[in-house]
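Please describe what follows:
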Amino acid sequence: MIRSILEWPVRKQLVGETSILNRARIKVLSYALNLKILTTTLLLIFYQLEHYRLQAIRAAVLLGIVVIYYIAVANGFQWRKAAHSAMLIFMAIIWTNLYYFQKGFDLVTLQYLVVVTVAAFYGLGNRWGVIYSSLAVVPFIAYVLLGHHLAGYISWGPQGSGRITIAIQLFQNFTLIVLINYFFFSSFYDTINDLDSKTVELRSSLEYLEDSRRKLEREHTHQKHLIASISHDIKSPLRFLMTTTGRLARNHPDLSTVRAISQSSYRLYHFMKNLLEYTEFRYKNTNVHFTYLDVNEMVEQKFAIFTQDAEVNANRFVNGVTPGVIIKNNAQLVSIILHNLIDNANKATNGGTISVTYQDFREELHLIVNDTGPGMESTVSDWINSEAKQLPANENASQNFGMGLLIVKEISTLIRARLHVKPNQPIGTSVHIIFSK
């Protein structure tokens, strides 16, 4: 209850202030302000009782200044500006004590020098601490340089003051110094404790992250071994199956079952090959190396893979990329993109045409896979044209396009290309692979 009353003037300044040190500074300002009002009021009363008119007037003026200061702070006066104002008030007291009211040293005036030094360093930081400490010493140095002689002893307080008023002033300044040191070191220890607790939490988090890193490394190593095993134990038998069934299909073209098995094994092999190459590329974390590619030659190679599938679907392949069209990119990754897009176009089209064309612009080259199928679902085309990486939440879309488009979308970012889908004219879909030059 008492603390809330003493801190009432700075309630606005404390709102939203998270720094432990700044909160301590604001609280010292409030306690010092309340202390000053109390002690100045007592001084005014006792100066009146002691019939010391000059000091009574001075105490009354100071009390008025402090009350105005209190009102300003209570109305939200910024605490740093309030601290600067307090330093200026203390400096004025030092100057007037030395050169007007007392014309000499006393213990109370020297205390104000200590108050200014401690309060400036604590409340405003090192730079302002040095500035105000230097300014506070100036009047004392000037007093000596101007030829004033120091008495054999230093009086306790202003001339004409009684013991009670001197005791009040000494108590006021001493209490202010104690308050400053108390809150400073309290904030210091709180900050240290807070840092210690955060250090413990950080150390615990680092240990957890290190443990997770080791687990991920083990998992990563396991995945690489698994990919190598799949590549050796699955891709090799598939290649053998593809070669054998292909030979049988050529030798016995009238056997539709053998031809279907040959086509399936051919497509399965190339699908596994692309998938394994892509997965291996990701797990090896290899850099994407760009070389010059002949686009026409790459399209011909991909068409050759799907020739038999095209015959089954009564589709026709057209390579509209003229010889000599060269791009600088990664052959392996561009090959995977073309493979998936041509495969999707061939599966979606029956009795139509799948063509690969290009458009050469000043800053870009568009490699376009066209089909004359029923067209791509809007949810899928919108997803391809967007920045999203995950497939749209549409069960049919996921079933129709599966992992192929997801791989294509991710690879396009690796090779610094963009995908854009739009309707083919008069029917079908056009998928643009946009390469920056």
